[in-house]
């Protein structure tokens, strides 16, 4: 369980999230993911990264129970810094990152997927930001990389989800495949990229990031400032408690 990495002979590093039961990632898990992505990019033998997950869904976001157990603000600070580190590591990874998404992709999962280079999803995949229902803000930066601006706003305010098929329609998802074919499809695309001269692909990744109109790191940290504010006002604590109480029922 946790974050694991494996490397294939054809230059593909596969990084897997595995935090049962729903891949709600604890703060240390986000930092571990950031380390795994940096290590992969630093390895000259890695030509491309596939980011995938085990279990019922790709990612349910941060571990709300961990935050709620904390008697001060240290847990929310750790979670926010961990998310920023992991999302940034996807974006800054020296090689292309392909996200292979199944089931639910929520909250922090959107941060990972929105910063990936390519997204492949299974037909059962759904994407959304329940942040406003949890008393937090964040990852609108990344959702806006997957859907048009006004759709992003509607999804954000309502906390509704969108299907992989709809994201494919809007260009946020490259390919939608049956669940059983997801890993194979991700590996096939990764293999195609891995065959290219990695010196060229690494420079291509750097060049594309360099012309990106959106400063993703700055924008996400700006969003997080409002999460801190909501935590200080008590609104976040109220929302998290209501969510956990509802789950208990």
UniProtKB/TrEMBL annotation:
Q: Which Gene3D superfamilies match?
A: 2-enoyl-CoA Hydratase, Chain A, domain 1
InterPro entries (UniProt xref): ClpP/crotonase-like_dom_sf, Enoyl-CoA_hydra/iso
Enumerate the SUPFAM superfamilies for this protein.
ClpP/crotonase
Alphabetized, the UniProt keywords read: Lipid metabolism, Lyase
What Gene Ontology terms for biological process does this UniProt record contain? fatty acid beta-oxidation
GO molecular function list: lyase activity
Q: Name the domain of life.
A: Bacteria
Which CDD domains is this protein grouped with?
crotonase-like
Instruction: Report if keyword Lipid metabolism is assigned.
Output: yes
Q: Which family does it belong to?
A: Belongs to the enoyl-CoA hydratase/isomerase family.
Q: Indicate what this protein is called per its UniProt record.
A: Enoyl-CoA hydratase family protein
């Amino acid at each position: 369980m946790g974050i694991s990495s494996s490397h294939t002979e054809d230059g593909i590093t596969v990084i897997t999230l595995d935090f049962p039961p729903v891949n709600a990632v604890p703060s240390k898990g986000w930092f571990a993911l950031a380390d795994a992505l940096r290590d992969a990019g630093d390895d000259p033998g890695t030509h491309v990264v596939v980011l995938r997950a085990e279990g019922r869904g790709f990612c349910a976001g941060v571990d709300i129970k961990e935050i709620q157990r904390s008697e001060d603000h240290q847990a929310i600070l750790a979670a926010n810094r961990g998310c920023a580190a992991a999302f940034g590591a996807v974006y800054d990874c020296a090689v292309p990152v392909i996200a292979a998404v199944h089931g639910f992709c929520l909250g922090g999962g959107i941060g990972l997927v929105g910063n990936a280079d390519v997204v492949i999803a299974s037909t059962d995949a759904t994407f959304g930001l329940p942040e406003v229902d949890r008393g937090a803000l964040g990852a609108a930066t990344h959702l806006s990389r997957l859907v048009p601006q006004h759709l992003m706003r509607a999804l954000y305010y309502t906390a509704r989800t969108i299907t992989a098929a709809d994201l494919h329609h809007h260009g946020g998802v490259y390919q939608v495949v049956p669940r059983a074919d997801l890993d194979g499809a991700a590996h096939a695309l990764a293999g195609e990229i891995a065959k290219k001269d990695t010196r060229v692909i690494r420079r291509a990744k750097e060049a594309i990031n360099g012309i990106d109109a959106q400063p993703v790191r700055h924008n996400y940290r700006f969003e997080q400032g409002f999460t801190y504010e909501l935590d200080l006002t008590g609104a976040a604590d109220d929302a998290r408690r209501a969510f956990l109480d509802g789950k208990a029922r």
